[in-house]
Give the backbone structure.
Amino acid sequence: MPPQVIIVVPCYNEEKRLPVADYEAFVRDHDDYKFLMVNDGSRDGTLNLLKALAAKHPDFFEVLNLEKNGGKAEAVRQGILRALDMGTQWVAFWDSDLATRLDELPLFTAIAHERPDLQIILGARVRLLGREIHRKLPRHILGRVFATTASNYLRWPVYDTQCGAKFFRNVPIIREIYQEPFISRWIFDVELLVRFKKACQRAGAGNGSDKIYEHPLRRWEDVKGSTVKGRDFFKAFFEFFRIVMKYK
């Protein structure tokens, strides 16, 4: 019987950054989850590290090796399609450095059980009293500008399109939106939501916003060594223009 949730974790040159102990601690206490670790053409020892983890915990970890580096968007896409084929009820993708901690996973799962109408659950990095959301100020400001732009384009009140923690119900429309490679390397999350909106409209199911829920994370923090740089936000706006032109 497949696990309740399969989490796709894209990994690129994570040999020295992957918090292996945190993953192992989580699966010791949660047997309804399985991690599909996607090696995205890493040039260091990441693949060997992932294989060792899967060999040690074969019930909880599996490795998908992509020989050529295709970027996070393609690693997530191929991982999600593989996870959907496994027959699990929910699939997810999660940042490998655990900027979003694994203890959020049961909260996502609880929401999924309580709301059978939902097809997508998005993590949202909302700075509220009583929550620990730590983002560098320049990235926070640029991120808010970008998120507001994306929200206006989608015509949805979405707060955070770019959080690296997302859940998807295993239904045909989710497979449909992952079927083709993304044109965006940096902001495929926005492209994913655009595809979902258009797929819902084609199916006569409204614009899809009633099938999405944003979950404000309890904790999130920038992890040292992230490959995302400040200049990438400018690349993101260029890719946003490409998305607008493709899906208009």
Notes: The mean pLDDT is 92. The domain at 5-247 is CATH 3.90.550.10 (Spore Coat Polysaccharide Biosynthesis Protein SpsA; Chain A). The beta strands are 5-11, 33-40, 61-66, 90-94, 120-124, 132-134, 165-169, 212-216, 219-221.
